[in-house]
Amino acid sequence: MAAEIKNLDTDLQMLVYENYNKFISATDAIKRMNSNIMGMESNMEQLLEKIKTVQSRSDGVNTSLFEKREHIEKLHLTRNLLRKVQFIYDLPARLGKCIKSEAYADAVRFYTGAMPIFKAYGDSSFQDCKRASEEAIAIIIKNLQGKLFSDSESIQARAEAAMLLKQLDFPVDSLKEKLFEKLEQSLGDLQLKDEDISRCLLMSNDPSKLENHPESVAATVHEASVQEFVEAVRAYRVIFPDSDKQLIKLAQELVTKNFETGEQYGKKRIRAADLLAVLRMIWKEVLLMDEVLHESVLSEFSLEAVQITVKHHVASRFSHLLHDISDALAKVYVGQKEGMEEFPLQVALGASKKAVLQGSMDILLDFRQLLDDDLELLVKLRESILNWVQEGFQDFFRELHGRFLLLSGRNNSSGQVHGVVEGTQGDRILASLVLVLAQLSVFIEQTAIQRITEEIAASFAGGGIRLYENGPAFVPGEICRSFRSAGEKLLHHYINLRNQRISVLLRKRFTTPNWVKHKEPREVHMFVDLLLQELEAIKKEVKQVLPQGLLRRHQRNDSNGSTNSSRSNPLREGKLSRTNTQKARSQLLETHLAKLFKQKVEIFTKVECTQESVITTIVKFSLKSLQEFVRHQTFNRSGFQQIQLDIQYLRTPLKEAAEDEAAIDFLLDEVSVAAAERCLDPIPLEQPILDKLIQAKLTKSLSQSAVSS
């Protein structure tokens, strides 16, 4: 407590010292003030005396000039009155000059200014002036009426004429219908035209090119016409206060027609930037008209029109993309018919892949500009644009899937395709196209959909209410499944088309000769060459389009008799030398025994989208068809030997072409056995003779290939 008391005493002492110093300073300041204002009172008394002296002298001047001032004011009033009188006397001449110079606005202003005087003194003092002025005004009214209904006059000039007539108390209400009819007719000149759109695009791309450019003149004329229309609407609202409904209707009609023009332009093959330039030009006009017609709500009215325009533009871009893909696929026809390309299918497939993937990326980049633009209307439509883009891709791939089926001839409209390509060459082109479509379907399912999905997820994710009501607009899984299925179907369709062509060749071979009277074989039949040529053409097509697969050649194991048909073993050769009765019985018995003890060979496996798998499957189907044709014929010994020779010659090239040698061996053996079963005397050719005939054929083929090369 003692320490705190000591501290408080110290603080109190410091406060006393500080206040004492302030008190001394205040005392010094008061002393200085007293010394400074000691002579001020005498100065103020002198100033008061001088002010009184000035006031007295001012009163004297006012008194002496009062009479003269009143006289001057009277003279000024008289001068103004004389000016008005002179204006009245000069009015007829002024009106005449205005008529000559067509300065009707000045003439109306002069006449309306003189109307109060004419009403007061027109029947007495200024009777002649009034009569002359009225005659001049009658001429002006007549000229204004002519100007009002002249087609050569601008909209703004007509509106000014109507305003002047109304100021002259002319009954313009009777002209209302004609005026609005003229205004409605003028809408045709205000609608957007091709040159207006061209100018707009030129300005948006490079404004510097507009200098001294013909399009810039068209631009100026169009903008001036729109400005005149806006001014005319403003004037008409003043002249006819009850005309708002008609004016709003005209404005909406003009906006609608302009957006229809923009919609038709948007359906062309244009960029989004070009469409944005056109929409900005229309939106600028809408804002100008909205300033004078607030009740029309043109901005909301324009939103619906822009929605239709942008939606149709999005749909047209997908339509053009579909057309580009069709053009790329058409190279299959052009390349194979004209022989312009060494590998036409490879070129067509590459162009088609580029059209699908790069075309889709270009479309997404284009649509991105619509989303990023700050145009007020597009900002409001952002969610809708997201939905349209996603729905567009879903519908595009669905339509592309249908187009693939149409081009392949797998639906009811296949006649359209066959109408384009007819005959043998047409069948070959159709099969080639089906092969390209199959591989393109695989590309879309494995590559294109993935890239497009990633881009949509990065830039076009989201969507409006549609996302929750009907599910997502873009379903990549569904598209992948459809194109996976389409690829498999088209690949099988290609195999069937090729086998149909080979079946025609086999049918001609087996139905033309009389096999019961067949002559002894001298050489390999020419149908073998045709068959190998057909397989070589197929191989050439497949190598252009399909990728190579993993090499899995199933070779025949001679040590394992289970993979060999019992009908091709040495036992069969001994069997063929027996008598016909013993041969038939033992053959039937051995056939059934072989089926019991042999290991099952899987002939028809799942077709993969590779070169080896497709070629092998076609060879298997061809041999199966050959077996069926053999079973429907009856052969003599020579006919059977001819079949044996042809089959033996085919064995090596077919095994080289296919990857499943075991299955090819098995099927060839099946053909030989089927021929033996249908033969009246199935005695085969001796091996030396068979080898000699095959070697002769090989030598002949080598010489022919050397000559052709």
From TrEMBL:
Coiled-coil boundaries: 30-57
Region (Disordered): 549-582
Highest taxon of the lineage: Eukaryota
Any single biological process term in GO: Golgi organization
Main localization of the protein described in the UniProt heading: Golgi
An example Gene Ontology CC term for this record: cytosol
Subunit description: Component of the Golgi-associated retrograde protein (GARP) complex.
Protein name: Vacuolar protein sorting-associated protein 51 homolog
Organism for this UniProt entry: Citrus sinensis (Sweet orange)
Phylogenetic classification of the source organism: Eukaryota, Viridiplantae, Streptophyta, Embryophyta, Tracheophyta
